[in-house]
Structures are given as structure tokens and as C-alpha cells.
Design brief:
- The structure holds 2 protein chains of 2 kinds.
- Chain A is of the alpha/beta class.
- Among the domains of chain A are: about 1-5 and about 65-90 and about 185-275, P-loop containing nucleotide triphosphate hydrolases (Rossmann fold, 3-Layer(aba) Sandwich); about 120-180.
- In chain A, about 30% of the residues lie in helices and about 25% in strands.
- In chain A, helix 4 (about 165-180) packs parallel to helix 5 (about 195-215) and helix 6 crosses helix 7 (about 260-275).
- The radius of gyration of chain A is 18 Å and the shape is globular.
- Chain B is mostly helical.
- Helices cover about 80% and strands about 0% of the residues of chain B.
- Chain B has 11 helices and no strands.
- In chain B, helix 2 packs across helix 10 (about 230-260), helix 3 packs parallel to helix 6 (about 135-160) and helix 6 (about 135-160) packs antiparallel against helix 8 (about 175-210).
- Chain B is flat, with a radius of gyration of 25 Å.
- Chain B starts with a helix and ends with a helix.
- Classes of the chains: A alpha/beta, B mainly alpha.
């Protein structure tokens, strides 16, 4: 099951990469997706390295994420997984190697990407609705209302972020990330600061919203269960290298109580805990 | 009997709770009363310190003649004119230095050096340059308010949460919008603190400048009164300076309430009411 580096996803290939046509806004009906539905970005990292001064954070990393695929990256703190995500977002430049977005080398910020961070990063001086609108160029319109409703905060648009709980703020951040229908969703430990119950609710929410829209998603987390619950593929990064890769074949939506799921989580965990 | 006792107790509680509000005013009122009595009984020469009631009478006299409001108008125009000039220069320079590191490297240490010169020490030079005309007073006030506004704008822009800037850029915000939506609102609490400091400097500078030489304004009124030994008018001028200072400060407080209504510190009342 666990395959090593340089093997691509076994999922059905997706010939057409992201198309600019943006169908209905965040239609998150649970219907299974078909090939024509794919409108995510295709990401390819070829021998990407990143060094900060003397420290090498990423060692010649190769990774291909197909359009519409959900990839989770797990690893210990400081293994380079967040740096990987920041490179894909265009917030950091690779020191070596190449990053292709839909086959084109990335120059500057990745305009296709929307990112969720561990902290919600809401503008405290803008109301909830206006914060969501930041995701689509500042227009407060029907799309904002729909996005807030999708994250069950339909009535909170006129509130200040300061009066929301941590989980609610993160849901606003999710609505902001999704409102413009971005073809690429980057999640940098978005649930790391939340309590266990809120986490589980948010995981379901992220899964459903992603599943409905077929965008590409990369999730960085240290929660293996979360990775297995959401992703098509789980990568384990350690010391700046992809050390192992696990395909998650369990049908969606996944049930974390099944034996299959538990055994997968255990397998990843064993690999993560066992350094070689 | 019990209801009576309860009623009395309730009245007593009410008195105590209302009295609590008056406690801060006890000492000032007592001082005023003792002062008035001391002058009335001749313990204190009214040449040395006029009684509160005579100050009040002087205020009424000057208000009726129109001189009071004329003087207040002249002084306020000087103060706010200087604030507008010095404040906008400080704001723009703070903004530029805060946003653009090369500018900060070039200019900030020079500004910091100048900041250490007490601006009132320049008065002899300023009189040589501008004489005792309006420009001298405007220049001094502008110079005085420049530094607090510059410093706090610079600091405010520099300390805007980097995470928010990163988020905004990643959401495709253009630079003008980033400035309007993230940098300026983020720096605003600090800028308003700078404005409050600047108002303090503004009045202080104005008082000194007007006392040295002026052809109108509160300071002129006070110096004129000194010549004729009108201690009541001198005292009135001092009180008016205090009121103007307090008034300007209140203005900023209102401004803060309005501009920072998003801030948790200003949402207390609203959430209690909700």
C-alpha cells in the first residue's frame, strides 16, 4: 500500500487541467464528480529545494498533484511541510528546482490559490461579510451571503470578527477562501488551534465543500486522522524529503470508526513514528 | 414596619450609590469654596489670586464684549492650522517611511536626531526667521505636532500584522486596496495615539508662543491683562487653555470611538446591551 517517492496518484487521470469557466457558485451538492467537472489546478514540483541560510528545509522534492486531487502532507514540526505549501502559494521562492502550475512555471504569487492558515487572519476592522468579500475582490454580494450560509454563518455577516469564537472565525476564513471558486485550495494546519469537537465539524465541512467543487486541495497537518479523512493521498515528509506516500481508497464520505479507516491511520502513524 | 425599614434601607442605598458618583468632585468643590471664602474674608489678596466668582464675572464681561470668543477663535485657528500643517507632513512621512524601507533608512535616523531637539529651544531662531508674525507660531506648533504624529504613524504601519498583509496579497489585493483595507486601518489605533500626544504638544507650544509675542489670541489677552494687573483675566486665560486642551482631547476620544468601533475595547457597551 505504501508506495515510495516518484509515483503519481493512481486515480483516474485528468486530461484537461483547470478551465477558467466557473460554474455555479460553490454548488456543494453531494453528487459524485465526473471528469468534465474537474476544474482544479495541476501542480508539479520538480526537484524543488529550499534553503534558509545554512539550513536546508526541502531536498530536491518531486511531487505531482493532479487537477481535483486532495493531497494531505503530514510530518513533524519543522519538517518543511509548511514551506512546501508556501512555495506552492508563491509566498516563498524555491532555491532550486521548478514549480509548474498547470504546466506553466510560477512567477510571483499563485493567483489560482486561496489559503487557509492556522489563525483565521480576518481583518478585525471589517465586518464578517466584508471579510468574506476579500476573497472575491471586495464585492459584498449574493455570493458572500451564499458562502457564509455554506459554513452555517448565514446570519453573522454584519458582526465584527472580534465577537466570534475561534471555530466561527475559521469558518469565516473558509468561506473567504472558497467564495471566489478558487481552483486551488491550500490549507496550512487550518484546524490546529481548534478544540476536538469543532475540529471534527470543520473537517466534515471542508470535505463536503471540496467534494462539491472539484478543486485541487493541499492540506498540511500533523493530525493523521484528519489527513486520512480528507485526502486522496497522504504524504509523509521528514527532513525535507517525501519519505512515504499512502493512497486512501476508502469511499467518501469516510467513517472514522470503520476498521479499514483505522488500519490506514495506524499504518501511517507507524511510519511516522518509526524513523529509519 | 419591615416594609418601612426596607424602604429606608433602599433610600439609603440609593443615596450611597448616587453619592459615589459625586465623590471625585468633593475635593475640587471644597477647594473652590475655601478659596472663595478666603478671598471674601480678605485672607487672600485679590491682586494675588482673584476669587472664583470674580473670574466668572470677568468671563461674562469678556463674553459680552465679544473679546473672549474673538481670542479663542484666533488661538484655535493658530493651533489647528499648525496641527494641519505639521500633522499632515508627519503623517505622510511616517506612512512613506513605514511602507518603504529605503525611505526609512534614508530619513528615519535624521528625523530621530531632530526629535531630540526641544522645539521650544528654537524660539530665538524662529523669531529671527519669522519675526513675531503668525508664521512663527504656526511653524512652532507644526514642528511640535510633527514628531508624535510621524513617530506613531511610522510605528503603526510597521507593526500591522504581517499575517494579514500576506493573506491580503494572497487574495489578490492590489497595492492601493491593501493600503486602504489593511495598512491604514491597522495603523489607525497607533496614529490616533499620536494625534492625542500631538494635541498636548499643540496647546503647550501655542501657549508659550502666544505668551512671548502675539497680537491677538488668549495669550495676548492674558499678557495684556497682566499689564493692567487684571489677575481675574489672567486666571481666566489659564482656565480657557485648560478647557481648550480638554475639548480637543475629547474630540479625539469621540474620533476613536467612531473609527475604532471594530476594536474589542470599544465593543464592550454594545455586547452588554445585546
Amino acid at each position: 500500500m505504501s508506495r515510495l517517492l516518484n509515483r503519481h496518484s493512481t486515480r483516474t487521470p485528468t486530461p484537461e487541467s483547470s478551465t477558467p469557466t466557473q460554474p455555479a457558485l460553490m454548488d456543494t451538492n453531494q453528487s459524485p464528480r465526473n471528469a468534465s467537472d474537474r476544474r482544479g489546478t495541476e501542480i508539479e514540483l520538480i526537484g524543488v529545494s529550499k534553503t534558509f541560510g545554512q539550513t536546508t528545509v526541502l531536498h530536491k522534492l518531486d511531487l505531482r498533484v493532479s487537477a481535483g486531487e486532495f493531497v494531505a502532507v503530514v510530518g513533524r514540526s519543522g519538517c518543511g511541510k509548511s514551506t512546501l505549501l508556501r512555495i506552492v502559494a508563491g509566498l516563498e521562492r524555491p532555491s532550486g528546482g521548478r514549480l509548474l502550475v498547470d504546466g506553466e512555471p510560477l512567477d510571483g504569487l499563485n493567483r489560482q490559490a486561496r489559503m487557509m492558515f492556522q489563525d483565521a487572519r480576518l481583518l478585525p476592522w471589517r465586518r464578517v461579510g466584508e471579510n468574506v468579500a476579500v476573497g472575491q475582490g471586495g464585492r459584498v454580494d449574493e455570493a458572500v451571503r451564499v458562502a457564509l450560509e455554506r459554513v452555517n454563518l448565514g446570519t453573522r455577516a454584519p458582526d465584527w470578527p472580534a465577537v466570534l469564537s475561534g471555530g466561527q472565525r475559521q469558518r469565516v476564513a473558509l468561506a473567504r477562501a472558497l467564495v471566489g471558486n478558487p481552483p486551488l485550495l491550500l490549507l496550512d494546519e487550518p484546524l490546529g488551534a481548534l478544540d476536538a469537537l469543532t475540529r471534527m465539524e470543520m473537517q466534515t465541512l471542508i470535505h463536503d465543500l471540496w467534494w462539491g467543487t472539484a478543486r485541487t486541495a493541499i492540506l498540511v497537518t500533523h493530525d493523521i486522522e484528519e489527513a486520512a479523512l480528507l485526502a486522496d493521498r497522504v504524504l509523509f515528509i521528514d527532513e525535507g524529503r517525501i519519505q512515504a506516500e499512502f493512497a486512501v481508497d476508502t469511499p467518501r464520505p469516510r467513517d472514522r470508526t470503520t476498521a479499514d479507516f483505522q488500519s490506514l491511520v495506524r499504518r501511517v502513524l507507524n511510519r511516522v513514528l518509526l524513523r529509519d | 414596619m419591615t416594609t418601612d425599614a426596607r424602604k429606608t434601607r433602599r433610600v439609603a442605598e440609593w443615596l450611597v450609590s448616587q453619592g459615589g458618583r459625586l465623590v471625585p468632585w468633593l475635593v475640587p468643590v471644597l477647594v473652590l469654596v475655601v478659596w472663595q471664602v478666603a478671598v471674601s474674608l480678605g485672607w487672600l489678596s485679590s491682586r494675588f489670586l482673584p476669587a472664583p466668582l470674580s473670574v466668572l464675572a470677568a468671563a461674562r464681561r469678556l463674553a459680552v464684549s465679544g473679546e473672549l470668543f474673538h481670542s479663542i477663535g484666533i488661538s484655535s485657528a493658530r493651533a489647528f492650522g499648525g496641527l494641519a500643517i505639521g500633522g499632515s507632513i508627519g503623517f505622510v512621512l511616517g506612512l512613506v517611511n513605514g511602507l518603504w524601507t529605503p525611505a526609512a533608512r534614508l530619513l528615519d535616523s535624521s528625523v530621530q536626531m531632530l526629535r531630540n531637539i526641544p522645539h521650544l529651544a528654537l524660539i530665538p531662531l524662529v523669531i529671527l526667521w519669522f519675526g513675531i508674525e503668525e508664521q512663527a507660531k504656526l511653524f512652532l506648533v507644526a514642528l511640535g505636532v510633527f514628531f508624535p504624529i510621524y513617530l506613531n504613524t511610522f510605528h503603526g504601519v510597521r507593526t500591522v500584522d504581517r499575517g494579514l498583509i500576506e493573506m491580503a496579497r494572497l487574495h489578490g489585493m492590489s497595492y492601493p486596496r491593501l493600503l486602504k483595507e489593511v495598512l491604514l486601518p491597522g495603523a489607525l489605533p497607533s496614529i490616533l495615539v499620536g494625534l492625542r500626544f500631538a494635541l498636548g504638544t499643540m496647546w503647550l507650544t501655542l501657549i508659550v508662543a502666544e505668551t512671548l509675542a502675539a497680537k491677538g489670541g488668549i495669550g495676548y489677552m492674558a499678557m495684556n491683562a497682566r499689564e493692567f494687573m487684571q489677575t481675574d483675566v489672567v486666571l481666566l486665560a489659564i482656565i480657557i487653555y485648560a478647557l481648550l486642551g480638554k475639548g480637543a482631547d475629547l474630540l479625539v476620544v469621540v474620533l476613536e470611538r467612531w473609527l475604532l468601533s471594530w476594536h474589542p475595547a470599544y465593543q464592550l457597551r454594545k455586547s452588554v446591551a445585546a
